[in-house]
Amino acid sequence: MSEIVAKLTEIRAGRPEAVAEALASRRRRPLLKTGGTLFLLAADHPARGIVKVGDDPRAMADRGDFLARIVTALQRPGVDGLMASPDVVDDLAPLGALDDRVVIGSMNRGGLAGAVFELDDRFTGYTAEAIASANLDGGKMLLRIADDDPGTLPTLTACAEAVDSLAARGVMAMIEPFASRRENGRVKIILEPDPTIRAIGISSALGSTSAYTWLKLPVVSEMERVMASTTLPALLLGGDPGADAEETFDGWRRAMEIPQVRGLVAGRALLNPGDGDVAGAVDTAAAIVSGGVSPKRETEVR
Fold first, then answer.
1. If you classify domain 2-301 with CATH, what class do you get?
2. How far is the CA of 222 from the CAs of 28, 105, 247, in angstroms?
3. What is the pLDDT of residues 148-177, one digit of tens each?
4. What are the pLDDT digits (tens) for 60-117?
5. Domain coordinates of the chain in residue numbers?
6. CA distances from 152 to 50, 118, 124, 176, 197 (A)
7. The whole model's pTM is what?
């Protein structure tokens, strides 16, 4: 792991142009695989100041370990690519880890976790122009909709502009909407069907076209009713599985049966599994997306 950090620091210090060169020469692939599904890793949490996973407050704080886990996951069969902030993409590109992978750039990282300005989520990461220039496949934006916080409005406006800018370049605009509110000064996500349906309706209408818009949605109760509110393709949000990863995986399996659900974006649940087996966790998730049985679960059944 320290070798990865040393190599990348040497590149950044001595030949920073190598990052752009690696991105420009990156071998690309179609967005969807033959089965029409998409399985992406999420690696943009540290950009919002989040390094905690489960009970470990520093799980993603070591950059070498973080990158090594991502590289291991990207090499597993069934993994289509990555959704990440610019610094992570710039780390992985010179390693050759992004060839033949879908890469989605994370755009708005200004709403830092726990900050008073959290819901005024400024676009401090990729722009649509930068995504096109970096030879990426799309852009992702987080949209927490809170009627009791004025920061929601500028974020809505910025997301609408980003949707238009991405669509003009013919690349995916991935919106991650959450119904939210403030409780005791902190942002609380509302993981309930009707507020989620409302957030889907608001997000789907952003910009002057939704032709290139995808949704990234949490798994909530009554997912069939929730997904009936849209025709947009959606990827499931993996999130932090907490103590019971198997319950999280079962929720993914049920949701993947819904036609609008085309795949999964998961990070913390797979890169820092409770048993430490990154490859096993990724294989399980890949099998859920493809509708098959993971090698790990097949062994357990036997």
1. alpha beta
2. 36, 30, 16
3. 999 999 999 999 999 999 999 999 999 999
4. 999 999 999 999 999 999 999 999 999 999 999 999 999 999 999 999 999 999 999 9
5. 2-301
6. 21, 9, 16, 14, 17
7. 0.94
Question: Measured between alpha carbons, how far is 237 from 265 in angstroms, rounded to an integer?
Answer: 5
Task: From 96, 110, 107, 99, select the one nearest 11 (Cα to Cα).
Answer: 96
Q: Amino acid letter at 139? A: G
Q: If you search the block for the tokens 């490859």, which residue do you land on?
A: 279
Measure Cα distances from 300 to 54, 105, 273, 284, 291 in Å. Answer: 24, 36, 17, 12, 17
Give CA–CA dist 107/121, Å, rounded: 10
- Between β-strands 186-189 and 172-183, what pairing exists: parallel, antiparallel or unpaired? antiparallel
Q: Taking a C-beta distance cutoff of 8 angstroms, is the pair 134, 112 a contact?
A: no
b/e code 156-183 from CB counts within 10 Å (16+ = b): bebbbebbbbbbeeebbbbbbbbbbbee
H helix or E strand, kind and range, residue 17: helix 17-24
Cα 95 from Cα 110, distance rounded (Å): 27
The residues facing 188 across adjacent strands are 181
pLDDT value at 295 more than 80? no
